[in-house]
């Protein structure tokens, strides 16, 4: 296997010239760039990433931090980040907090050992944690995938989560439902509160009251949705529709309903939020308010890489809208569309 010394000898240049070609090629003349490039191609030379990291003090890794990999939404986020990073010299590495703030605080305490040049934080918007990340962003560039339009302390990609749930609830109201239940995320979470505010706004505008027995919450897991539907269906006066804070919860609801012979959407309509692939692969296909996941992640990678390579650049914020996708869980004759 060829090493950098072999390339230098083949090209008839100093080892430092090959190193400069690998790290700062614009500082070389066209003649030297061509000679080194030809030698690399002929020898099939592959730079040693560890050695390069030691020379440049860069790892060429971006750390993506998500709260929970059991939620299929975050699996799709990671895959979209991975695809976006293929167009760069950076490789994403995944960290999950398992929704444990102690674990996240430990990561922050040892961020220098994360072996990453930048961080992308995915919907980690608790005040305490954001304050801690502000303290370390002089050490490492940070980009947010967030709902919080007010947070301009970082590069950020923002999705209006409140409006997403508002659109979902509005759809349920528009097709004639009045007894509407809501399955939400972990109680106390800022993301949970933001989503719930959209639900409350839609019902308030329609003059519908929010019934306490029509509310359920828990982790964003299939089991939470399943138990929420079970609770709602055991009520004396059942809801005729369930708005879910994400698609995983909606899938859990639909699973309980179909297992128990409850017709969807004639007896109970269900709608989710996020737009993950499982929502349209499931049977019946699940109506949702979809995020443009690939676009979000491409933008996040672009902002993160730009901040790594231009540390003094100003923070930017990009805002993305969501889209209502009507499927068979709310409209029986909805077409089968396999492409968002």
Features:
13 helices, 3 domains, alpha/beta, Rossmann fold, 6-stranded parallel sheet, 340 residues, 434 Repressor (Amino-terminal Domain), elongated, 4-stranded parallel sheet
CATH architecture of the largest domain: 3-Layer(aba) Sandwich
Please report which band the strand proportion falls in: under 5%, 5-15%, 15-25%, 25-35%, 35-45% or over 45%.
15-25%
Q: SSE string, helix = H, strand = E? A: HHHHEHEHEHEEHEHEHEHEHEHEE
Report the principal-axis shape.
elongated
Q: Based on DSSP secondary structure assignment, what is the total number of beta strands?
A: 12
Q: What's the CATH H-level homologous superfamily of the largest domain?
A: Response regulator
- The CATH class of the largest domain turns out to be Alpha Beta
Q: Could you give the distance between the termini?
A: 46 Å
Fill in the CATH topology of the largest domain: Rossmann fold
Query: How many structural domains does the protein architecture include?
Result: 3
Structural class: alpha/beta
**Overall radius of gyration:** 25 Å
Number of helices: 13
Helix content range of the residues, please?
Answer: 40-55%
Order of strands, widest sheet? 2-1-3-4-5-11
């Amino acid at each position: 296997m060829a090493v950098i010394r072999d390339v230098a000898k083949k090209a008839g240049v100093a080892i430092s010239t090959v190193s400069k070609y690998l790290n700062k090629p614009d500082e070389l003349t066209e003649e030297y760039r061509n000679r080194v490039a030809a030698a690399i191609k002929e020898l099939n030379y592959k730079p040693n990433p560890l050695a390069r990291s030691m020379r440049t003090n860069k790892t060429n890794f971006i750390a993506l931090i998500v709260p929970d990999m059991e939620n299929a939404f975050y699996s799709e986020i990671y895959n979209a980040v991975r695809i976006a990073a293929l167009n760069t010299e950076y490789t994403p590495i995944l960290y999950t907090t398992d929704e444990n703030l102690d674990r996240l605080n430990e990561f922050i305490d040892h961020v220098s050992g994360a072996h990453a040049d930048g961080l992308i934080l995915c919907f980690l918007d608790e005040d305490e944690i954001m304050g801690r990340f502000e303290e370390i962003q002089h050490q490492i560039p940070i980009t947010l995938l967030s709902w919080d339009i007010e947070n301009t302390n970082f590069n950020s990609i923002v999705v209006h989560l409140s409006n997403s749930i508002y659109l979902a609830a509005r759809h349920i109201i528009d097709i004639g439902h009045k007894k509407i239940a809501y399955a939400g995320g972990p109680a106390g979470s800022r993301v949970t509160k933001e989503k719930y505010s959209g639900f409350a706004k839609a019902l308030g505008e329609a003059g519908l009251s929010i019934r306490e027995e029509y509310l359920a919450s828990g982790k964003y897991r299939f089991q939470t949705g399943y138990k929420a539907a079970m609770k709602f269906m055991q009520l004396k006066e059942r809801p005729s529709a369930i708005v879910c804070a994400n698609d995983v919860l909606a899938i859990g609801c639909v699973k309980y309903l179909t297992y128990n012979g409850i017709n969807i959407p004639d007896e109970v309509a269900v709608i989710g939020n996020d737009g993950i692939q499982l929502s349209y692969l499931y049977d019946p296909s699940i109506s949702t308010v979809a995020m443009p996941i690939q676009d979000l992640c491409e933008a996040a990678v672009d902002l993160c890489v730009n901040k790594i390579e231009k540390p003094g650049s100003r923070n930017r914020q990009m805002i993305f809208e969501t889209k209502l996708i009507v499927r068979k869980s709310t409209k029986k004759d909805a077409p089968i569309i396999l492409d968002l």
